[in-house]
Design a protein that fits this description.
By secondary structure, this protein is an alpha+beta fold. Helix content is 29%, strand content 15%. The strands form two sheets. A two-stranded antiparallel ribbon has the order 1-2. Strands 3-4 form a two-stranded antiparallel ribbon. It is globular. The model has no long low-confidence stretch (mean pLDDT 77).
Length: 112
C-alpha cells in the first residue's frame, strides 16, 4: 500500500487537487537549503552552463498541461523507519528539498 503524499489529494471524483506552487517550493524548501547548504544539490544538478550528472526524469505526456505529466511532477517524498510494525520515524516532505535530516534517520534506525 502506498503512503499518500502531501500534494496527491483527490476530490470525490478522483481528480487530483492542486495545492499550489508552495507544495513544490515553499519557505520550508528555502529553510532546508539554508540549513544544509546546496553543495550536495549543485554536485548533482550542476549549473546552467556546467550541468552535473543528473538527467531529469520528467513525466511523459501530450504537452505541458497534460494531467498525467503534471501530476507526476507534484509528488513529494517522505522517509520512514520501522521496527517490525512499529513506526519509529515518519516524515512527509512539505515541499521540494524539505527532507528529514540524515542524522534524524540514523538516530531512529540505530536507536540513538
Amino acid at each position: 500500500r502506498a503512503a499518500a503524499t502531501r500534494n496527491s489529494q483527490r476530490d470525490e471524483k478522483g481528480k487530483q487537487i492542486f495545492e499550489g506552487v508552495e507544495s513544490m517550493w515553499s519557505s520550508a524548501t528555502n529553510e532546508a537549503i539554508e540549513t544544509r547548504g546546496k553543495a550536495d544539490l549543485d554536485a548533482i544538478t550542476g549549473k546552467p552552463w556546467n550541468p552535473g550528472p543528473y538527467t531529469p526524469l520528467m513525466a511523459k505526456g501530450k504537452g505541458l498541461f497534460d494531467p498525467r505529466a503534471v501530476e507526476k511532477t507534484l509528488v513529494q517524498g517522505g522517509s520512514f523507519v520501522f521496527k517490525g510494525r512499529e513506526t519509529l520515524l515518519e516524515h512527509y516532505d512539505e515541499s521540494s528539498g524539505a527532507h528529514v535530516t540524515v542524522d534524524a534517520l540514523l538516530d531512529a534506525a540505530l536507536g540513538r
